[in-house]
Amino acid sequence: SPPVSMEAIEELNVLLAPYDVSYGNFTGGSINAITRSGSNENKSSAWYYFRNEDLAGRSPRPIPMPDSSGKTHRPKLSPFLNQIIGGWNSGAIVKNKLFYFALFEVQSETRPQPYDISVYRGNSTTTELNNLSEFLKDTYQYDPGSFLETKDKLDAIRMMIKFDWNPSQKNKFTLAYRNNKAERAFPPRVSSNNTIVFENSGIDLIIRNHTGSFEWKRFIKNNMNNRLLVTFTNQISNRNWLGQPFPTVSIRDGTGNIQFGSEPNTGINDLNANDFTFFNVFKYVEKNHVFTLGTDLNFSMLDNKILQSYFGFYNYVTSLN
Predict the structure, then answer these.
(1) Of these four, 9, 34, 53, 258, which has the most CB atoms within 10 Å of its CB?
(2) What is the DSSP code (8-state) at residue 54?
């Protein structure tokens, strides 16, 4: 999920191998996204984007009909709806002095991922795989989910507020805050020619981002200026398994493989990251020369807990036959 709405971007600044010392900690090029700001004129914008199965193509290859007629068809995707809705407003709180920009956006997407069982190279048939699912439900009260179609779901809320204050011609202050909350449910692996993956082997990934920044530009003289930038970012990422908790099971099925159960890396997998940056640069221009003096201090703190195969892992080299 992008942390900033594309509608908040005013321009992109691309620098190819910049030699300026104030651009550090990387090699190659630099891409900076500059967000919108307010002005004396009150402006607003609203948008709505959507896409459903009628705006998506059919199956790229013919697949057998579900009946026993032996005919093939190219079906559409299962019903889904992807949509993004939002709006922003900007203007002046104090004319020529204090400006604001505010944005709010909601995103909801579902991407069906159908699977053609006829391409599976393992020994088990559709009936045997359905029998396995029923056995897990009856014996262990565990629903592995579908193996014929999985879904990739995303729900996100983004907001941004920005203030620009120009108390004088020599000083400019900018204060901004961005918040992004996103939840995505998806399978790390989907069924393929050699693998059958049941739907509840997926994960539910929840991410929350809080970002704040303060910038002070001081124009001392025509050939002297100073820029101070302080930023803080907090990211919390938690992973949950889909469905009920269950051991991870892998069954060797001839030349194929069958997988079901809770995703092995998700039992305990939490991240809490904090990043603080203090950047200050003073520039002095003398004829054809630019002298730069400053500092770039960064402090990061990561708390990442990982415990794999929390519910156990079982590997069977056998076949359902």
Answers:
(1) 258
(2) G
| Torsion-angle region of 162 (φ positive above 0: left; ψ -120 to 50: alpha; else: beta) | beta
**Could you tell me which residue, 78 or 303, shows the higher pLDDT?**
303
Which of 133, 113, 117, 260 minimizes the C-alpha distance to 194? 117
Q: Are 99 and 38 in contact (CB under 8 A)?
A: yes
Burial (CB < 10 A; 0-12, 13-18, 19+), residue 25, is exposed
Vertex 156 angle, CA 154 and 160, to 5°: 155
Instruction: Give me the residues paired with residue 224 across strands.
Output: 221, 284
The DSSP symbol for 121 reads -
Query: What is the reported pLDDT for 20?
Result: 76
Whether the Cβ atoms of residue 188 and residue 202 lie closer than 8 Å to each other: yes
- Return the closest-CA partner of residue 225 out of 151, 272, 283: 283
DSSP category for residue 119: G
Structural tokens at position 240: 């949950």
Q: Please provide the DSSP assignment of 240-301 as one string.
A: EESSS---EEEEEETTEEEEESS-TT-SEEEEEEEEEEEEEEEEEEETTEEEEEEEEEEEEE
Contacts of 233 (CB under 8 A, 6+ apart): 209, 210, 211, 212, 273, 274, 275
Beta-sheet strand order (sheet of 149-168)? 43-52, 81-94, 98-114, 149-168, 171-186, 203-221, 224-241, 268-286, 289-307
Question: What DSSP character marks residue 311?
Answer: T
**Residue whose structure tokens are 């079982």:** 314
Give first-to-last CA distance, the chain, whole Å.
43
The closest alpha carbon to 308, from 278, 263, 277, belongs to 263
Under the banding of pLDDT at 50, 70 and 90, the label for residue 76 is confident
Specify whether the CB–CB gap between 185 and 203 falls below 8 A: yes
